[in-house]
Each structure stands twice: as structure tokens, then as C-alpha cells.
Amino acid sequence: MDNQFYIGEISNFFDLPASTLRYWEQSGVLIPNKNTENNYREYTLADLMNISDIIFYKSLGIPLKQIHTMEQSTPEEHEFLLNKKISELEYKKQQIQNCIEKIHMRINAINTLKELKLNSFKEVDIDTECIVSFDLTEIEKLRKYIENPYLYSRVQHSDNIETEIRGLTISNKHISDFPKSQIIWRKNNNKYISCLMKEEVTEGFPNNLSKLIDYVKTKYNINTGFIISRFLLCAMENGKLYDFYKTFIEIIP
Fold it and tell me: Is the pTM here over 0.85, yes or no?
């Protein structure tokens, strides 16, 4: 390349659209000479350095408006700007990490659903320690549910499965955060049978819970107590919309 370059050459060299170079010119961050005879833009080696710096700072996420003022900024102002950008990126990094964790939780819920379809009615140790009452108007509890829908739990008893209480599962270390009146279930030493409950999202919300309980009682010849259903997923199956729950049926010794 010679010491003077046209916009097409610069575009190819930096793999940038000519429209981007023109926009930078309009923004004032790039000011090439213009040939007085044909009005063509003529870029110099200094312009190449300037373009390289613009690309560098844009790769850091710094907007053109700030890039435009950087030549007039002191080293301290440069440092302040870059430290501010680090803080912004660290915040975004944490947001992305939180998003990844939530996606993994949903994938785990889907895998749990698939596993229960293949291998239900296993004797297990229930995976929650305590459940507190949950009303959708309770903002703090609703926020916890939004962070992890698997926390949503329904508490019922085999003696009266028509009565259910909405709940939110918590660990024992957080029990003191809630008044005793809100505790609707606590883990004991009993074992549970795990299975998949599905409830159709339609009028009356029919589900297969009574069939699951009857099957457990017949197969194991046991009495059953509490029934804890933890929300997995809302999805379609055979043309119908269902809420799927991992359900734990208590074995009464």
C-alpha cells in the first residue's frame, strides 16, 4: 500500500464496511483528508493508526462518543473510564453467570422429568427440608420462585388430597427467617416414593395423583401420608398442556 489510501482499500484492509468508516467520520472520531479535485477521501498512515485505536476501544465496549474525547483526556481520566468499564463488564459477567445457572436448573428439571418417565416409584430421601406457605402476592417469596421455579411445592395429605397448600421449599438454616405460622411441612425420618405427577392446564386442572397414590399403596402394601409435589416444567404432551411435578409420597411405617 502507498502512503495514501482510498476508502475501499481501508475497508478491505480492516474488514470494515465503508458505511462504518463514513459513520465514524460523521461522528468526528475519524477525519480523513479529501482530494480537492475529485472529493475522494484519502487516508494516511496516521489515519490507519487512528482506525486501529478506534477498533481497539470499540472492542472494549466503549462508545464512539467517549472514544472521540479520549485524545483530550488525561491519563487519570483514561484510568477512570477503563475502571468504570471493568465494573460494567464484571456486572454483566455476573448476570451472564446467573443466567447460565438458571438455564442449567431448567435443563436439570427436564432431565428429572425424563428420568421419572422411565424410572418412577423409587424409594428415595426427599430433597427438601422445610416448606413454608406461599401466596403469589408475597413479593419476596415470588422473587425466590422466579429465581428457581423448583422451589414451588404443593403440600397435600393422602387422607384428603382435595386439600392442597401452596408452598415454597427452604433449607433448615432459613427456617428462622419465617414465623412458625408459615411452616406447613418439615422433613422427618420417613422415606418417600418418587413419581411423576402431571396436571392438565385446563378447566378443573385434572391430574393423575390419586392413581399414583393407589399404585404405591397396592405395589408396596403400605400406608401413605404427606404428598409433596415440586414443580418441574409446563410443557406440551400428546397435544395437551401439562404442569409436571416431581411428587414424593410419604411411606408411613
Answer: no
- Check residue 200 and report its DSSP letter: E
Residue 206: all three cell numbers together: 385434572
Query: CA–CA distance from 46 to each of 5, 14, 49, 70, 120 (Å)?
Result: 11, 15, 5, 16, 71
**Region for residue 87 given its phi and psi (left: phi exceeds 0; alpha: psi -120 to 50; beta: otherwise):** alpha
Half-sphere exposure of 154 (CA within 13 A, CB side): 20
Beta strands 160-170 and 183-186 are: unpaired
Interatomic CA distance for residues 56 and 218, integer angstroms:
70
Please tell me the distance from the alpha carbon of residue 249 to that of residue 123, in angstroms, as a whole number.
9
Q: What share of the chain is helix, strand, coil (3-state, %, to 5)?
A: 45, 30, 25
Q: Output the average pLDDT for the chain.
A: 94
Give the pLDDT of residue 29. Answer: 93
Strand partners, 81: none
Q: 10 Å Cβ neighbour count for 242?
A: 20
Looking at residue 234, its amino acid is C
